[in-house]
Specification:
about 40% helix, about 375 residues, three-stranded antiparallel sheet, single chain, elongated, 16 strands
Length: about 375
């Protein structure tokens, strides 16, 4: 960008007479005192060619501003590092939680009283990858908050604790456990999770003005499951819906090889060794196993999955010598919200409201204070 201007400038500089001989000395008179002075035929600085002046000029333009700007760049970096090490709970304020949750810690057998929104953050951190899309994390936060509110409203259990920190209820991890698990990634991961929780603060899912059972799982087989086909009790908001985004999940396909002896022990049956084993399978609307007839015995898909610890109830069986090969699609019970499906929807630009209303049919987003005023009043 400077070339044309500088060339024009250079062409306007008068030509300086060149010495024909090099490295010789000549004598001239100085204007000061008319003294005879010995000069080299090498030009003094004021006689250098114009391009040298141009080069110096450009260097001055580029270097001096850089020297001025560098300290400010360094200061910005310092501020950025400081910001990264700031407390990660800035998005969650002390007054955000209307009540606390008594969590029985499985490792210590002690009860921790955890403010509601902090509890939700600990559940989201334990149940969903922190690098998922922010809208998927929001949907998970909504499901986690709804679960605990619904549990506290209708739990039959009595005792000092409200929930455990295991899959019996919802997996929960506190700050110390997450710092140990995530190490140097703790700050950015917790910032994302707290952002999602803060954005949905106080929101829960309801159906006919009543909190729902917000079931969720990892990965579907392309469809979610009807609650009645797995739990046997029908819930109108837990109906089978399409979930094509799950095919990108690393848990979408799996294969397990089980010995005949292991199958016999798990299911309590005897299998022939000298002939092929017949397996008759009936399936649900979502293509999961409804019933399996094996060696004259009938099992539900859920029984087989849980007894053999299979990832899903969508499986096929192949016999090879003294083994059965179970090929599965999906991961989890398949009811409610698919986490990888939610992430896929978020990648397509769907909001958390659109995600939850897709997987939980006919629900509304309500406020804890309006739906569960008794919980809020008890804390007060």
């Amino acid at each position: 960008m400077f070339g044309k201007k500088f060339n024009q400038r250079y062409n306007t500089i008068p030509k300086i007479r060149k010495q024909k001989k090099k490295n010789r000395f000549y004598v001239s008179k100085s204007k000061i005192g008319q003294k005879r002075i010995l000069h080299s035929n090498k030009r003094p600085p004021w006689q250098w060619p114009a391009f040298l002046f141009v080069a110096i000029f450009v260097a001055v333009i580029l270097v001096i501003p850089a020297l001025i700007v560098v300290p400010f760049i360094q200061d910005d970096s310092a501020e950025s590092v400081t910001a990264e090490t700031d407390p990660v709970s800035v998005e969650l304020q002390e007054g955000d939680s209307p009540f606390s949750v008594a969590v029985l810690r499985s490792q210590t057998d002690k009860i921790e009283d955890v403010p509601l929104e902090e509890y939700v953050s600990g559940v989201v951190a334990a149940e969903m990858p922190a690098d998922f899309e922010i809208e998927a994390l929001k949907a998970q936060a909504l499901a986690a908050r709804t679960y605990i509110v619904n549990h506290l409203l209708y739990q039959d259990e009595s005792g000092e604790d409200d929930v455990t920190d295991t899959v019996r209820h919802q997996v929960y991890k506190n700050e110390e456990e997450l710092r140990k698990q995530w190490g140097s990634d703790y700050t950015w991961k917790m910032r994302r999770i707290n952002e999602a929780v803060a954005a949905t603060k106080g929101e829960i899912l309801t159906y006919d003005d009543t909190t729902i059972t917000p079931a969720f799982f990892s990965t579907s087989n392309g469809y979610t499951e009807n609650a009645a086909d797995y739990w046997e009790n029908d819930l109108p908001y837990l109906k089978s819906v399409e979930s094509p985004w799950d095919e990108s999940s690393p848990k979408f396909l799996d294969q397990q090889v089980v010995t005949l002896e292991e199958v016999e022990q798990a299911l309590g049956i005897s299998l022939p060794r000298d002939e092929s084993i017949s397996a008759d399978i009936t399936r649900t609307d979502s293509d999961r196993v409804k019933q399996l007839q094996l060696a004259g015995e009938t099992f539900s898909g859920r029984d087989v999955r849980e007894s053999l610890d299979l990832p899903s109830t969508d499986f096929t069986i192949e016999q090879k010598d003294h083994h059965l090969i179970f090929t599965t699609k999906g991961f989890g019970h398949g009811i409610g919200m698919s986490q990888y499906g939610a992430n896929g929807m978020a990648k397509e630009g769907k909001t958390y409201q659109e995600i939850v209303t897709h997987y939980y049919q006919g629900v509304e987003i309500s406020e804890v204070a309006d739906t569960a005023p008794t919980l809020v009043a008890q804390e007060g």
